[in-house]
Amino acid sequence: ISMAGGLYLMVGHGFCSSCLFFLLGALYDRIGSRSLLLNKGVSTVLPTFCIFWFLSCAGNMSNPPSISLFGEIFLASSVMQVGMWASGAMMSVLFLSSCYSVYLFSSVYHGSGFSSAKGWGKVSFSEITTSLLHLVPLNISFLVMK
């Protein structure tokens, strides 16, 4: 069960982290900065990006229905057999990574907007397609699990 959990977690991480890097690169192309302080308030200008970023951060936190959730459940059940100290350490790491995902989303998409962006433009079809090609397998692949 731990091997399956590790595989599910790796696949989920591959989809959500590459989608987050893609979305960050698309924001960098528009704003010209990777600073979290300068990228505040994006939700008012690019609501489509907000949806994709939220789903990616939710997948990074292993929220349902992402395949990462099942990977973490399988790994947690395997770690519990090792001992309670290992379970406590794992739960602490999971909690801290979830807190960081919430902080990442809220720091970029909430707050006062960055008024001097180079040019926001609209979200292109290729950006939507690329984001969906990351998020659909992340959130639908639990249907084909054995």
Automatic annotation (TrEMBL):
<dbReference type="InterPro" id="IPR003918">
    <property type="entry name" value="NADH_UbQ_OxRdtase"/>
</dbReference>
<dbReference type="GO" id="GO:0048039">
    <property type="term" value="F:ubiquinone binding"/>
</dbReference>
<comment type="function">
    <text>Core subunit of the mitochondrial membrane respiratory chain NADH dehydrogenase (Complex I) that is believed to belong to the minimal assembly required for catalysis. Complex I functions in the transfer of electrons from NADH to the respiratory chain. The immediate electron acceptor for the enzyme is believed to be ubiquinone.</text>
</comment>
<protein>
    <recommendedName>
        <fullName>NADH-ubiquinone oxidoreductase chain 4</fullName>
        <ecNumber>7.1.1.2</ecNumber>
    </recommendedName>
</protein>
<dbReference type="InterPro" id="IPR001750">
    <property type="entry name" value="ND/Mrp_TM"/>
</dbReference>
<dbReference type="Pfam" id="PF00361">
    <property type="entry name" value="Proton_antipo_M"/>
</dbReference>
<feature type="transmembrane region" description="Helical">
    <location>
        <begin position="6"/>
        <end position="28"/>
    </location>
</feature>
<comment type="function">
    <text>Core subunit of the mitochondrial membrane respiratory chain NADH dehydrogenase (Complex I) which catalyzes electron transfer from NADH through the respiratory chain, using ubiquinone as an electron acceptor. Essential for the catalytic activity and assembly of complex I.</text>
</comment>
<keyword id="KW-0496">Mitochondrion</keyword>
<dbReference type="GO" id="GO:0031966">
    <property type="term" value="C:mitochondrial membrane"/>
</dbReference>
<keyword id="KW-1278">Translocase</keyword>
<keyword id="KW-0249">Electron transport</keyword>
<keyword id="KW-1133">Transmembrane helix</keyword>
<keyword id="KW-0812">Transmembrane</keyword>
<dbReference type="GO" id="GO:0042773">
    <property type="term" value="P:ATP synthesis coupled electron transport"/>
</dbReference>
<dbReference type="GO" id="GO:0003954">
    <property type="term" value="F:NADH dehydrogenase activity"/>
</dbReference>
<keyword id="KW-0472">Membrane</keyword>
<keyword id="KW-0679">Respiratory chain</keyword>
<comment type="similarity">
    <text>Belongs to the complex I subunit 4 family.</text>
</comment>
<keyword id="KW-0520">NAD</keyword>
<feature type="domain" description="NADH:quinone oxidoreductase/Mrp antiporter transmembrane">
    <location>
        <begin position="3"/>
        <end position="90"/>
    </location>
</feature>
<keyword id="KW-0813">Transport</keyword>
<feature type="transmembrane region" description="Helical">
    <location>
        <begin position="93"/>
        <end position="111"/>
    </location>
</feature>
<keyword id="KW-0830">Ubiquinone</keyword>
<dbReference type="GO" id="GO:0008137">
    <property type="term" value="F:NADH dehydrogenase (ubiquinone) activity"/>
</dbReference>
<dbReference type="GO" id="GO:0015990">
    <property type="term" value="P:electron transport coupled proton transport"/>
</dbReference>
<feature type="transmembrane region" description="Helical">
    <location>
        <begin position="37"/>
        <end position="55"/>
    </location>
</feature>
